[in-house]
Amino acid sequence: MSTVVPRKTKELDRVVVRFAGDSGDGMQLTGSRFTTVSSLLGNDTATLPDFPAEIRAPAGTLAGVSAFQVHISDHDILTPGDAPNVLVAMNPAALRANLGLMAPGGTIIVNVDAFDQRSLEKAGYQANPLSDGSLAAFTVYEVPMTSLTMQVGKEAGVKPRDAERSKNFFALGLVSWLYSRPVEPTLAWIAERFGGRPEVAEVNTRAFKAGYHFGETAELFESNYQVRPAPVEPGTYTNVTGNTALAWGLIAAARQAKLPLFLGSYPITPASDILHELSKQKHFGVRTLQAEDEIAGIGAAIGAAFGGALGVTTTSGPGMDLKAEAVGLAVNLELPLVVVDIQRAGPSTGMPTKTEQGDLLQALYGRHGEAPVPVVAAMTPSHCFDVAIEAARIAVTYRTPVILLSDGYLANGAEPWRLPAVEDLPTIEANFATQPNHERADGTAEFWPYLRDPVTLARPWAVPGTPGLEHRIGGLEKQAGSGNVSYDGENHERMVHERAAKLAAVAASIPPVAVDDPDGLGSAPVLVLGWGSTYGAIAAGVRRVRARGLKVAHAHLVHLNPFPSNLGEVLRAYPKVLVPEVNLGQLVKLVRAEFLVDAQPLTKVQGQPFRAREIEEAVLDTLGVAAGSATSEEQE
Amino acid sequence: MTDLAVPTTTRKDWASDQEVRWCPGCGDYSILAALQMLLPELGVRRENTVFVSGIGCAARFPYYMQTYGMHTIHGRAPAIATGLAVTRPDLDVWVVTGDGDALSIGGNHLIHALRRNVNITILLFNNQIYGLTKGQYSPTSEVGKVTKSTPFGSLDTPFNPISLALGAEATFVARTHDMDRKHMQETFRRAHEHRGAAFVEIYQNCNVFNDGAFERITGRDQRADMLIPLVHGQPIVFGAEGQYGVVMGEDGQLRIAPVAEVGVERVLVHDEHRDDPGLAFALSRLARGPFEPTPIGVFRDVERPEYGEAMTRQLLEAQERRGPGDLAALLASGGTWEVPGPAH
Ligand code: SF4
């Protein structure tokens, strides 16, 4: 289709669009299409899917509202944005649930057909917000999306009920026009995705075009907008969610270690997509087992590891509770194992679809006995790829279970990712044992499964099938060296120290934590220390503070256990340390205990990530500066 | 893994240097001996043999075998063995478990390993008691069992392990007992030959906490009248002269009758390979406990695709269809765009 030159096109450097509707309205699909097209255009993007926990909440109610927020920009951005510039509300409930996020002056596009008496009541509106003046602070566009979509459906000869389902494509077309997105990629995508159902493809195409033309021709909009490509590092880019990146990282890690990949997993939100993705990649030799429960998932992964595979289990908080005993077993067995925890709001079932960083202390300490486990955390969706490789490196090199922490925000959020060169990925050495390693008193050779490497303190990994290295391992305490069962107290103490020393050996292999302090380490009066998914919000908040001419430093941890060896030095270089976390202050406890520094927590536990503005305000507060009017978001 | 002939071994080669530490007189000794004597006959290699266990007296078994072994956590052995067996189809994976381990804390893993038909051989040492924790009643203890945790008698109905395995879609189900080495060896051999999950219940005497639990049926003088040997293709008869037989009544119920009275043609002929497990199930219910004539031997032996093999087949088919995995192509599979360098 030809693109008609619009009346006026205004340049924007960034925009935040939020698509909201009923969970059956296809808002996630609409949002991610808009994101992909924007990425193809070269914009930087960051997304925040926000969907209800109930798979089928009653239609039209607040509980059933599903939203997808995307931030697109001509410069690199770090978060999905704070306040949306544009809200697309497919029904009254979507408007009511999301209005609170909007800043005055924002634009609201509503599907006016859905604002009938019944729908208004279901959403809890006494009066129609479109006519009672309550939206006076916003620019509101009322678009009859349902009826216009049914109109094109009728032209295509499709039943009204089926046609109505395409109204999200109308909305996508309209917003695509509003932000001058090219139409061809979406039309091609519709053709491919719905290729098997030509009538669905037809209505979706027509609805999409109708939305686009509506923007062009209706006299409603006075202008449309353009967001130019972001100047980013040259390279090949794709858009990736955290869970997909994590699954691919595991495949890459197995490839780099020349080990077969085995995943034992039980479905759980928000981790299941990793199981789904790996189950698709069988041609990589990936074996996936949907286990009978969480315990079997990790148990099977341990069994596979004994046999010489890269054993992985994936889960979320409740599953971590169940796996604790098996993680302890893996600590004793000293076999490589990667345990992935996509954190969600807890305790118990909590809020399955909402994000949180509440499992840090559990990852470090949630087992009986002295059971140290290395812990790593991903910072952004694409970083999940690198962290998966790093977790596998530590697990395989040091023969230990490793816990990888991601969370719901990273898992479902997407960002553009500059693809790494596959040949530059780090290699991982499995170094299987092939020979006996100990001499008996009579001079004959035997194999001792707990004779450690002097540098890594790793024990030899001898896999079944290797003649002469037959040995038994287990959960009972083992004698140092020989690996025979031992109840000797002094031997136990030695083994406890050896397992702890292995963590210190890991520390020697990880890079020092980098500090973003433009004038050099210790120049700023305050350091913001973060871990995991708060990276984007902290980096953006720090930029805002700097835009006011103030100094602030930022350090972000990937390795939570052991810590990078320079962390103490970094913390002591700053008079004030602020630790933002989506929990009640877990990392802050660890650094206070470990380094005796007066670090202060900044906490938020609303099932949502931090906003840049919240970080900015907390830093200003720490600096003793009045926030006054917030800086322009353009700094973000 | 190689074409070389399997080296000849003796019982000694299969025993580790660890001192065996079960209570003197425990039935576990005779099971260990039966297996260590059998393995040299099976044409298998020590390095390709793995014993996996959970927790309990029986779970010490792997330490005594000069093979690969894993003594894991309570109840989880079938799950752990599943991960090993599906990734290493070249191995012989044995699971050694007990009634508490397999049927109480690990019940879920047992039934799922059986229904998946993973290529593992499960030996369940059933002594109807908790031995390692010193004498509490178990999920196979009879109702009214007086133990430390049930001073007024236990209330719960026990599991019948054979019925449970049959209900869990097991493809190989057998029973043997620790007083008959030859029968054990024959049963273990059959279980080992089976492709898929093989389940063997072994009546095992715990002489410390539940002595004589099976004495009434396994005692040397009782056996002929109290054990009903199941032999494929043969009428199910027992007694010193084969004078009793298992018949199906008009009501569909199995019962025991003197062969002379009912005639041998009315005696059921055992068919291990019947696809419908109904008759095997009925046989497993013939005795209400080890105090009535009890069938032993192979209840069921049918073929169904083995889980690990099926999993491997899916990988090979995927590789045929799509070629071996190409990581660079995978990373680009969601669509890419180029950001040109400054030179452009
Ligand atoms: S407690 Fe019973 S089962 Fe355990 S070793 Fe002693 S006799 Fe054997």
From TrEMBL, chain B:
The keyword Oxidoreductase applies. Residues 57-202 form the Thiamine pyrophosphate enzyme TPP-binding domain. Signal peptide: none annotated. Keywords: Oxidoreductase. CDD domains: TPP_OGFOR. It comes from the Bacteria. The keyword Protein biosynthesis does not apply. InterPro entries: 2-oxoacid:Fd_oxidoreductase, THDP-binding, TPP_enzyme_TPP-bd. It holds the Pfam family TPP_enzyme_C. PANTHER family: 2-OXOGLUTARATE OXIDOREDUCTASE SUBUNIT KORB (PTHR48084:SF4), 2-OXOGLUTARATE OXIDOREDUCTASE SUBUNIT KORB-RELATED (PTHR48084). This is 2-oxoacid:ferredoxin oxidoreductase subunit beta. It comes from Aciditerrimonas ferrireducens.
